[in-house]
Specification:
The protein folds into 2 domains: 3-82, SP0830-like domains (Alpha-Beta Plaits); 83-178, Alpha-Beta Plaits, CATH 3.30.70.1260. Helices cover 38% and strands 25% of the residues. It contains 7 helices and 8 strands. Strand 2 (34-38) and strand 3 (44-49) form a beta hairpin. The two termini are 16 Å apart.
């Protein structure tokens, strides 16, 4: 039975890694995915598939994207149910979200280890708050990005692995579209 999957692609349409959403949909369709849709131009792809193994699908899609786009793309997959859980589990109260400059969700491929969890939580300051799930990092940014010490790249350097971040509003929209 087909199910809806959301692919969160890292660093699409950043720097020289430019791709139209039409081309991205075509590459994903050529890779055997069904009902392919994109959301915004930042590497958010929704599709259906009967394939069961998400790790294999993640590897296969990454290979197809590299072949079709000409550059390496890190792929983070979540089922529609998983993405809806990410939205439901937002740990910050509504009044904090409203007062904040932004709230982001960082997606990882593998669960955080205990040491990594401690490391991420250690980034907290008066300007930046963090909360964790197994494969997600919630980042509440109380000031502009230029006014905070934390960065996406800093997280990747600290963890020694890739992640991709999305604004909470984008994650909410993807969860709604995938329902």
């Amino acid at each position: 039975m087909p199910r809806t999957i959301i692919a969160l692609l890292r660093a699409v349409n950043v720097g020289s890694r430019r791709v139209t959403m039409e081309r991205l949909r075509a590459v994903c369709t050529d890779a055997g995915l069904d009902d392919v849709r994109t959301h915004l131009a930042s590497g958010n792809v929704l599709f259906t598939t009967a394939k069961r193994s998400l790790p294999k699908l993640e590897r296969d899609l990454a290979a197809a994207l590299e072949a079709g786009l000409g550059f390496d793309v890190d792929v983070f997959l979540r089922t529609a149910a998983e993405l809806q859980e990410v939205v439901a589990a937002v740990p910050f109260p509504p009044q904090e979200l409203e007062a904040a400059h932004a709230c982001y969700v960082g997606f990882l491929g593998e669960p955080l280890t205990a040491a990594e969890r401690a490391q991420v939580l250690g980034f907290a300051t008066d300007d930046d708050a963090f909360a964790l799930r197994e494969r997600e990092v919630y980042w509440l940014r109380r000031r502009r990005e230029s006014e905070t010490e934390f960065s996406y790249a800093g997280l990747e350097r600290a963890l020694k692995r890739c992640a991709t971040f999305r604004n909470l509003k984008t994650v909410e929209a993807l969860a709604t579209k995938s329902a």
